[in-house]
Amino acid sequence: MRKFFATGAIALAAAVTTSLAFGPAAIAADEPKLPELHWHFEGPFGTYDRAAAQRGYQVYKEVCSACHSMSLLAYRNLMEIGLTENQVKGLIADIQLPDIGDDGAAIERPARLSDHFRKPFANALAAAAANGGKAPPDLSVMIKARDGGPDYVYGLLTGYVDYDALSPDAKAKLNKELDIDPSTFAFGKDDNFNKYFPGHRIAMPPPLSDGKVTYVDGTKATLDQEARDVVEFLAFAADPHLEDRNRVGIRVILFLLVLAGFVYAVKRQIWANKH
Q: Distance between CA atoms of 187 and 163, rounded to whole angstroms?
């Protein structure tokens, strides 16, 4: 019996060692280290920066929405980032959505608050045909769908490098930093180099740049600012109930602490004369 348990323990240790050596942790170790930023919505007391989220929606609408859908979000959800009903109606006043008229014919009508965000393409086949054979992903839960979440999305948006324009020394330094073997790294004319995208070759050209948008609130639109703002908006889209959940969690913890103190006091009272 002891021999059986010893053999089992050795096998378990070997399995754990193998999973650590060849599993996701080992794979992740080969990937470039993502930028680590402070996000308002992280942690048990996390909240959304509503001004940043509103700017992020502007970036999405003016830049990202040309290719990427957000099918799980409705226009009325924009009121949850601090916009009034009239402000949202003003933002969507120029948006036309496909619908079916009373006579059964296809029509275009103005967007309503209850409508989900307009899709840039009629279907996945049309999206793929317009984007080199691969449909751009929906961004509704992108922050939760990628390892690294907001840091990955921020890194992707800011990690573009003009690889071919680098000097030989700069290219060698980057290859060493990212562990790239130049003899096997094939970089096509339609590829874009990105430090944080797996494989570093991405079909999407850099979507953001300094001055890509003109913010309504007057904030200076640098690449860093645009990336931070759109990540804030995408984080809200992926988890719109985060703040409510955090508030409930804090109340539950406080209640449990008070209950624990009460139970301890009762225990002391009951057992006071037993010793």
A: 9
* Superfamily classification of domain 28-73+116-261: Cytochrome c-like domain (1.10.760.10)
Q: Which residues of 167-201 are buried (b: 16+ CB within 10 A; e: fewer)?
A: eeeebeebeeebebeeeeeeeeeebbbbbbbeebb
In this structure, the chain runs to a length of 275
All residue ranges of the chain with pLDDT < 50 are 1-29
Residue whose entry in the numeric block shows the structure tokens 């985060």: 242
If 0-12 CB within 10 Å is exposed, 13-18 middle and 19+ buried, where does residue 127 land? buried
Report the amino acid identity of residue 77.
N
What residues does each domain of the chain span?
Answer: 28-73+116-261
Is 16 in contact with 165 (CB distance < 8 Å)?
A: no
Listed in sequence order, the residues at least 6 apart from 158 whose beta carbon sits closer than 8 Å to its beta carbon are: 35, 208, 223, 224, 227
Q: What does the alpha-carbon distance between residue 134 and residue 45 come to, in Å, rounded to a whole number?
A: 39
Which residues lie below 8 Å from residue 131, measured CB to CB, with a gap of 6+?
A: 67, 203
pTM given for the model: 0.81
Six-digit token string for 250: 């804090």
For 97, counting Cβ atoms within 10 Å of its Cβ (0-12 exposed, 13-18 middle, 19+ buried), the class is: middle
pLDDT tens digits for range 5-60: 344 443 434 443 433 343 443 344 456 789 999 998 998 889 999 999 999 999 99
